[in-house]
Amino acid sequence: MRAGQDRRVQPRGEKLITALDIGSWKVSALIASQSEGGEMTVLGTGQRESRGVRRGYIADMAATEIAVREAVEQAERIAGTNIEDVWVSFSAGGLVSDLASVEVELGGHRIEQEDIDELLAAGKSSIDPHGRMVLHAQPTLYTLDGLQGVKKPLGLHADRLGVDIHVVAADGSPVRNLDLCVRSAHLEVKSIVASPVATGMACLSDEERELGVALVELGAGVTNVSLFCGGLLVGLASIPFGAADITDDIASAFGTRRSQAERMKCFFGSATASPRDNHEMIEVAPISAEEDAAETTRITRAQLIAVIRQRLEHLMGEIAKALKELGFGGPVGRQVVLTGGGAELKGIADYAQGNLGRAVRVGRPRGLAGIPDAHSGPAFATLAGLIHFAASDPVDLRALSSTDQTIVKAPGSALLSRLISAFRTSY
């Protein structure tokens, strides 16, 4: 708890949730309350420039810690409360998603809660992250004597009871650095959540996740491409560049500062071009040690858009390649959802649709009452998704005790094949 602040009187039955998104461009925090009825209301938000993060990885611990402190304290002042723990997103490269099945013999008796608990504990011991750190290990659907897709097996009879386990893992060192940075800011880490998992909860509908959809997070330094099918995250790919590279291209092309280039991109930039762009002029302040003596130059909006589109063409090519490798574009998926700060570029959905040959929309956070307009865009989808994830009170097998019960493992690729096969037969 930070000194010098008055604690807000928390209504009875209200649960406070704090989300923290540490990105390459900004560090943002959001405090929300969850009522007994499940409604989530935003109480306060905070944001600071990110100076110590590169391509999603913490490169300067001290600078990142300061940004975390300031963003959280700003949210606390607005909310009128102190918080002690946070849910943190992780978006750096190295994320992998796997699916596995575990099965136990029951002998035909009626399924009791004890049987389910033992199955889940057995599932925990079956997880093999291949040297990575497990971020999520969540049970999804159950299987009764080969019948798949059972949500509630309690009370039914079966000879064999199985469960499908969704595992998301990441390289260990970047996750430990993130955890250490947040704790150094005197905050407890409730959980570190994979960015695609959180973002998907904020801007994808249940039906989209069930039928098949690609989520493309256009971050500042990293672009994450994830594929959802059968209600699950079934594939992940990471591209080591993003919207900040467009800003750098503008700064380099026109000899201006990054801050000026970012302003030009936001106010005048677009992914689509029109004939009138050749007649609209933009003033550019060059880099100079003596700012008062610097003379501005003028460029056409068409010149600016040409630089932006050159980088976008490369980025969309990498996204298309990642989608193909994930199996998107065949039977799995009909729509792409863009989110992240890069998705705020004018005309980006139309441009992506033309390049990817798929229906494209921009995903924005939803389901939070009282969210400020400044935090309602796609750049804050992950932040809102952390609130949704925390409010869902997810079951994680890592919190369970292990068991010595005999188990039968099925490889994750087998479950993925079943999901894709089921999707194929629905068309």
Mean pLDDT: 85
What is the number of helical segments per DSSP (H or I, 4+ residues)? 11
Report strand %.
25-35%
Class based on secondary structure composition and strand pairing: alpha+beta
Largest sheet: 5 strands, mixed
- Point out poorly predicted stretches: 1-9, 401-427
Task: Give the helix/strand layout.
Layout: E1 15-22, E2 26-34, E3 40-49, E4 53-54, E5 57-58, H1 61-79, E6 85-90, E7 96-105, H2 113-126, E8 133-144, E9 147-150, E10 160-170, H3 172-184, E11 188-194, H4 195-203, H5 206-211, E12 213-218, E13 223-229, E14 232-239, H6 243-254, H7 258-268, E15 281-284, E16 297-300, H8 301-325, E17 335-339, H9 348-356, E18 359-362, H10 381-391, E19 408-410, H11 412-425
Parallel strand pairs: 1-6, 6-11, 12-17, 17-18
Antiparallel strand pairs: 1-2, 2-3, 4-5, 7-10, 7-19, 8-9, 8-10, 12-13, 13-14, 15-16
Textual characterization of the structure:
It contains eleven helices and 19 strands. The protein is α+β, with helices and mostly antiparallel strands and 427 residues long. The strands form five sheets. It has a five-stranded mixed β-sheet, with helices on both faces. Strands 9-8-10-7-19 form a five-stranded antiparallel β-sheet. Strand 4 and strand 5 form a beta hairpin. The termini are far apart. The N terminus and C terminus are likely disordered.
What descriptors fit this protein?
alpha+beta; 11 helices; 33% helix
